[in-house]
Amino acid sequence: MTAGLAGRTARSVRWSFGAVLARQGFQIGCAVVLARLLGPQSYGTIAAATVYISLVALLLDQGLSAALIQRQDITRRLAGATATLNLLVAAALAAGTWFAAPAVAAFFAVAELDPILRVLAFAIPVKALGITPRALLARDLQLHRVGAADIAAAAAGSAAGIGAALAGAGPWSMVYQVAVTDVVCAAMLLAASRGPAPNFALRSVGPLLGFSLSVFATDCLAYFSRNLDNILVGRVLGVSALSIYGMAYRILVVPVQLIGQTVNRVMFPAFARSAQEPERVAASLVAATRVLALLAVPLMVFVSCAAPELVHLVLGPDWMPAAALVSVLAIGGARETIFYITPSLMKGLGRGALIVRYEILAAVVQVGGIVIGLQFGVFGVAVGYTAAGVLLTPVLLRIQTRLTGVSARSQLASILPAAHAALWGAAGYGLWQLGDAGRLWHLLGGLVIFFALAAGALWLFHRRLLAAFLAQARSLAGRAGNPGDSGGHPGARAARAAPDGPETPDIPNEAGGLYG
Fold first, then answer.
1. Pick from 254, 447, 452, 481: most CB atoms within 10 A?
2. CA dihedral of 407, 411, 414, 419, whole degrees rounded to 10
3. What pLDDT was estimated at residue 285?
4. What are the pLDDT digits (tens) for 124-165?
């Protein structure tokens, strides 16, 4: 990897994290406000609409964005043809949504869902306009431009949604949020990428289809395996249960999107550009795993411990049934965040067939866990989903070993310090909760105790790893030296400095906003 690419990668990490943080902050804030204003029953309509709209967002792309990023050489003509194909599919999906809306509303037994989906159908082609420009900017690691579009769109959409809710729009607030978000985002992405101009040279897209269809098949399998819980809860237990489950599920996707998605945006093109350099791919994997674990595991263990206080203070007493689900799904969110890197690794190395095989297995395991859990109510679904993820962990470790040569033991060694620190924090939080204090003081005091003990455990028992993590963070923040040093990757120095990586010095070793 050249020094220039390493520098762009570090800059992209900073921009990507800032953009995802700001975007998700707006979207989560909007969701919380809407949840408090509407209550579980009315918010259930939004949750049901989100399940369908997420499927439409998936079908829009057909994996072509991933193919554009992964392919070594592309032309503007090819990109323009891809944009045309996106728009044609969007028009078909808009028509399909218009006619399918009554059936979707009947499936969830929510009559108001019919007109909401029909209006949202008109926003589908608008969203399609930004797909190819986003891929081209990501390919060139111009994520500061993508980030600017995402931040502005999320801010505008959240303002529109909250304003509509305060004006009494009810579940229709979602329509305002989605429409404004998509218009602003598409306009800014088109301006940043300067096109490309659509054309009808659709035959030129042919070479992309082999890889794109495998990614698309994978994404479809992932959608159904990861959304079947929402679909079944809404169908069997009703939209009130779906709103409770959906709000708890947001806790799972917060670290996946804030942390995992940031890494995914950067590491997918970085893996693709370094596919012919196995040592650098391995170094990137270990560095990314270490960062993901240290950022996600303590955070989500704290959320699991503090779920009752968080739900009561943030969402209100009407949402307290979600607390137990939050505790379980937060643990699943930590695991999912760590292994969010695996799909990026497989896609970046062009292993489309392997992605499909894994997602078939994941779908079977996750659907099994969800169906079994459904017999015990909404809490059983949360337990079944989380347990299925744990069962898939050895498979993910094996895949990463096969692709990089890094042993499962070395991968786990990158994760265990974060888990160890989180256990110390959880013990301190549990002892603090034995005292007699109000919910707010329980939460604030527990927060300080938890992270003080977690940081202390890292400093006492994993000092070299903590130093490596901080060095990597400084590098990504632009305060380190030449990003081309230490092997050319911003994470290479930190990975080599850790004590528990592979012995060879040169080989130290993602889910939601309302519309995707």
1. 254
2. -130
3. 83
4. 999 999 888 988 888 877 777 888 888 899 999 999 999 999
User: Could you tell me which residues come within 8 angstroms of residue 213 by beta carbon, excluding any fewer than 6 positions away?
Assistant: 62, 63
Distance CA 36, CA 311 (A): 11
Instruction: Give pLDDT, residue 372.
Output: 92
Structure tokens at 248: 């708890």
* Residue 242 one-letter amino acid: L
Q: Each residue of 223-242: pLDDT tens digit?
A: 776 778 888 888 888 888 88
From CA 92, how far away is CA 86, in angstroms rounded? 10
Of 231, 180, 245, the residue nearest 52 (C-alpha): 231
Q: Is 112 helix (H, G, I), strand (E, B) or coil?
A: coil
DSSP string, 123-183: GHHHHHTTHHHHHHHHHTT-HHHHHHHHHHHHHHHHHHHHHHHHTT-GGGHHHHHHHHHHH
Measure the CA–CA gap between 22 and 486, rounded to whole angstroms: 31
Query: DSSP string covering 195-257, please?
Result: -PPP-S-GGGGHHHHHHHHHHHHHHHHHHHHHHHHHHHIIIII-HHHHHHHHHHHHHHHHHII
Place of tokens 């799909």: 343
The residue among 377, 379, 376 whose CA lies nearest residue 329 is 379
369 closest CA partner among 358, 356, 379, 382: 382
Which CA distances in Å does 104 have to 2, 70, 161, 255, 408?
51, 35, 23, 30, 44
Within a 10 A sphere around the Cβ of 204, how many other Cβ atoms? Answer: 16
Of 31, 29, 32, nearest to 21 (Cα)? 29
